[in-house]
Structures are given as C-alpha cells and as structure tokens.
Design a protein that fits this description.
Layout: H1 31-34, H2 46-49, E1 55-69, H3 75-78, E2 83-96, E3 99-108, E4 112-123, E5 128-136, H4 153-156, E6 163-172, E7 176-186, E8 196-197, E9 217-233, E10 236-251, E11 256-271, E12 274-286, E13 297-301, E14 308-311, E15 313-330, E16 333-347, E17 355-366, E18 369-379, E19 404-415
Antiparallel strand pairs: 1-2, 1-19, 2-3, 3-4, 4-5, 5-6, 6-7, 7-9, 8-13, 9-10, 10-11, 11-12, 12-15, 13-14, 15-16, 16-17, 17-18, 18-19
Keywords: Signal
Organism: Chromohalobacter israelensis (strain ATCC BAA-138 / DSM 3043 / CIP 106854 / NCIMB 13768 / 1H11) (Chromohalobacter salexigens)
Protein name: Phosphate-selective porin O/P
Length: 416
C-alpha cells in the first residue's frame, strides 16, 4: 500500500511551515530574534535556553479507499464494495545545526496506529549523514518497490519499505550512493508499518493454524549494506544497485540462534516518459526450531493483518514499467502515470507452487490531491483471497491455492 505519490524521484509533496511565524523554511529567523527572553534564574533546558529547531517541515495526508474483491461473499462486496477510511498520517522533519529529526506516524483503518519511520541523526556534510532509530533498511528498490498503490511480493517478505531499530550511515553523491547499517531488531508487532518476522506467541488471529504455534523465531543483530551507481546519457538515466543483509534468528523455545541472509540486484532506468524497474532477490531463513516444527517456512505478521507463513528459501523476480503522460487539458489533473507491476516468488521446496502478483493501473496527479486506481491479480497470495493457515507464500496447499484472485482498489488522498 503505497503511502505517497510515485514521482520520478518519489517524495512526499508537502507545504513547509516555519517554526518562527511568517519566515519561510529556507529563511528561518535568527535564533536571537526567534527565542523569547529567558529569566536569569530560569532552569536551563532545551525548551527555554534556545530554540529546539532551526527549521521545521510538516506534512501528511488524509486518504480514503474503495475496494472490490471478487473472492468476498459479503453483502458490501456483492454490492460493489464500500468507500472506507484508509489512513491519516503526519510527517515531521526538523533540523538544529547539524542534527535532524525525521518521523512519520500513521492512523490507519481498523484502529491501527503505527510508526512508519522515526529517526534522528547527524549530518557530516551535505552528502553524508548518520541515522539512528527506526530507520529504513538499506535493501533493494527504495523507497518503494513498485509504482502502484498496491505493494508487491518483496514488501510482504520484509524486503521493501521496511524499517528496523538500529543505526545507518548514508552517503549520497552525484554518481555513487552507499548505505550500511546495523539493526538490533524489528519494531514490535503493534508498532511496525511493514510486515516482518513474528513469533506465534505475539500473534492472535484466525489464520494462525495449529502447525504455526511452534514458530518462535525473531530477527536480531542484522548487518545490511546497499550500493548504487548512477549512469546518465542524452535523455536517459540508469541506477544499478546491489544490496545484502545477514543476521541471527533467535528461537525463544530452543534459545538457540539460527541465521538468515538475503542479497539482490536491481536496475532503475528512466528514458523520456518511460520508467523500468528490474530486480532479482535471493534469500534464506535457517531457523533453529524445536523438534516437530518444520524448518521449511517462517512466520510473518503485520499490524492489523492476519499472520502468514513464508517459504524459508526462495528467489524473487520483479519487473515494473511506468509511462508518464502530461495532461495540460484535464484541469487540475496535470499528469497521469500508467503502470504495470509484476512480482513472482519461486520457492526452493519441491512441490510448493510459485506465488505471483500483477497490478495494472493509473495514478493521477492533481496536487494536493493524488490517487491510484489499481487492478491486481494474485495467485497463492494470502493478501489476495486469504488461505487457511496463511500458507500462500509457503506450501500453497490450502483451499483456494493455485487460483487467480482479482481485486480493484481506488485510493484518493489530500496531501499537505
């Protein structure tokens, strides 16, 4: 579920607010003009001794959703679906000298409250910085692994738009981009934005089959790295990248540590109105489960969604294509983006069928209003039709396996 517009360089469109009245974010008032007088006997705190930020940038969005699912037999789906609240979120960025803060907090449907990201850091220069807190793991296509509103398979494997608690160094130059980070553990299940590995003890939902009850693995001590090289020519640009991570899988039942790792290659190419994203991922989870618990799959979960199992070893392929069409005669709609996102998971375990997702759609830009219309097909995807035991991304041997399911989704939001 893509939270922001996917422009040529995907960023959130927002207005900036000055912390000090009418001054703009780029020309904040000097500290001696912005800070009120302080009594000599007043306690010295960051709030009274000096301004806590030189610049403040506030943004967010209010979004609504219409969805139709062909597998649902509910009355509202038979009637063509309903319009529902999707999300309201706030983004905050602040700077003080070389220190900075960046966070995004979401209020979602079904009473879900999550920290999409939240970190502070230090800028060594205009090109390098250190981030600490709930920061994005440096892996794969960033910031989003697709063009559409509907996330694709890497997101559900914890390999796209995923945050964890740790520290990350970032270098962004004109040709090279490098990131390296250490992450102690993911965010808790009720706080994380994206799905990630979970212990059965922390999950309580109807999709948790008895065979999942022994799943007690949690990620910890992950080391990640990402390197990207940019090439440019006459009317085109290509970004070639590689990423890798390795970490421990701690099993709460056996109190032993297994391991996990993943690596990927990707290419992002823009030529004229066309954009193409290619990616290949290889990953392995090697848990130390107790006797009687299969090592062939691991348990994943996200906030407000049923838990599901993921094949312990697999290969993922991604191909996304988009075309931008300026629309000067469509009033407030200044641009349309047509896209096709395809992803596929091939599982190592013999007899386990592949999982696939395909989304075709259009995004419209009428800032500050933006929207996506997605038509998505899914096969052996728990998120598309659901399966008893949540086995779509694993054994895919439950009712509904091997069938293509259809979902249409219209998301419209006001971004500020």
């Amino acid at each position: 579920m893509n939270p922001v517009a996917m422009t040529s360089t995907p960023i959130l469109a927002c207005w900036t607010l000055s912390l000090f009245g009418a001054a703009s974010i780029a020309h904040a008032a000097p500290a001696d003009e912005a800070t009120p007088p302080v009594r000599e006997d007043a306690p010295t705190t960051p709030q009274t001794a000096q301004s806590w930020a030189d610049a403040l940038e506030l943004g967010g969005a209010l979004r609504f959703n219409h969805r139709y699912e062909d597998w649902s037999s509910s009355d509202k789906q038979q009637g063509g679906g309903d319009i529902d609240f999707d999300a309201f979120y706030l983004d905050l960025e602040a700077e003080k000298d070389d220190l900075f803060l960046d966070l995004s907090y979401w209020f979602k449907d079904n009473d879900v409250r999550v920290l999409e990201h939240g970190f502070f850091g230090y800028r060594f220069s205009s090109r390098s910085r250190l981030e600490m807190g709930a920061t994005f793991e440096p892996f794969g296509i960033m910031p989003y692994p697709q063009f559409g509103w509907t996330f694709n398979i890497p997101f559900y494997l914890g390999m796209g738009h995923n945050t964890a608690l740790g520290a990350k160094y970032v270098y962004e130059g004109p040709e090279w981009e490098a990131q390296v980070g250490f992450f102690k553990n993911p965010l808790s299940l009720d706080t994380r934005y994206a799905p990630n590995m979970a212990s059965a003890d922390d999950v309580d939902d109807a999709f948790l089959a008895p065979t999942n009850s022994g799943q007690a693995n949690e990620k910890q001590n992950q080391l990640s790295g990402r390197l990207v090289r940019t090439f440019q020519g006459d009317g085109w640009e290509s970004r070639l990248g590689a990423s890798a991570y390795v970490g421990q899988l701690h099993n709460d039942t056996t109190d032993r540590n297994g391991s996990y790792w993943g690596t990927e290659l990707h290419a992002l190419t823009t030529f004229g109105p066309w954009q193409v994203q290619l990616q290949g991922i290889r990953y392995v989870f090697d848990p130390e489960n107790p006797e009687g618990v299969s090592d062939d799959s691991v348990l994943f979960a996200g906030p407000g969604t049923p838990s599901y199992r993921v094949a312990a070893k697999g290969t993922v392929g991604v191909l996304n294509i988009a075309y931008d069409l300026p629309t000067p005669r469509l009033g407030p709609v200044k641009k349309l983006r047509f896209y096709n996102d395809y992803s596929r998971l091939v599982k190592d375990r013999s007899g386990w069928d592949d999982s696939q997702m395909e989304t075709v759609g259009v995004q419209f830009f009428a800032l500050p209003v933006m929207g996506w219309l997605d038509v998505t097909w899914g096969k052996n995807m728990n998120m598309m039709g659901g399966m008893p035991g949540g086995v779509g991304l694993a054994s895919a041997d439950a009712e509904g396996s091997g069938e293509w399911e259809l979902r249409t989704n219209l998301n419209i939001g006001y971004y500020f």
